[in-house]
Amino acid sequence: MYDLDINVRLHETDAAGVLFFGNYFKIAHDAYEQYMQSIGFNFRQIIDEESYLILIVHAEGDFHKPVYVGDSISVSISASKIGRTSFELEYQLTYLDTPQKLSHQIKAKVKTVHVVIDKETKEPIPLPIKLRTGLEKLK
């Protein structure tokens, strides 16, 4: 599992100060990018230099409780499936410690499915060993 703590900013919310629904996916993707960087995957380098791409082919989310501007939340990533050519990540957004003692209260869940493809053929290819090793750390 990998955790990233964030503070919700005003520009991420709607007029009522509630986190805009599309930003749950943005926050999950930010955590994904940060984790990938931590295991040695630079997306610019992949796009410019590697023979493969890592695509998101499915995303879904479940809202549980509102998140407001100024809230501190934790995004936990786990790998729910690691296949030959694809993997599935789950993100759980929870409150960090608050004066209201709401820590660990689930705010939302997001899931993404990723496929590794060959840049030329656009066909799925086996996960690079370095990627598989990094994903195993999320089990």
Outline the structure in words.
- The chain has 139 residues and is an alpha+beta fold.
- The longest helix has 17 residues, at 22-38.
- The chain is 23% helix and 37% strand.
- A hairpin with a 3-residue loop joins strand 3 and strand 4.
- The chain has a five-stranded antiparallel β-sheet with strand order 1-3-4-5-2.
- The chain starts with a strand and ends with a helix.
- It is built from three helices and five strands.
Q: Supply Rg.
A: 16 Å
Q: Give me the number of helical elements.
A: 3
The low-confidence parts are none
* Oligomeric state, counting identical vs distinct chains: single chain
Query: SSE order in H/E notation?
Result: EHHEEEEH
Q: Percent helix among the residues?
A: 10-25%
Shape: elongated
The end-to-end span amounts to 6 Å
Structural class by secondary-structure content: alpha+beta
What is the mean pLDDT? 93
- Read across the widest sheet, the strand sequence of neighbours is 1-3-4-5-2
How many strands, which pairing sense, and closed or not: the largest β-sheet?
Answer: 5 strands, antiparallel
Give the percentage of residues in beta strands. 35-45%
Count of beta strands: 5
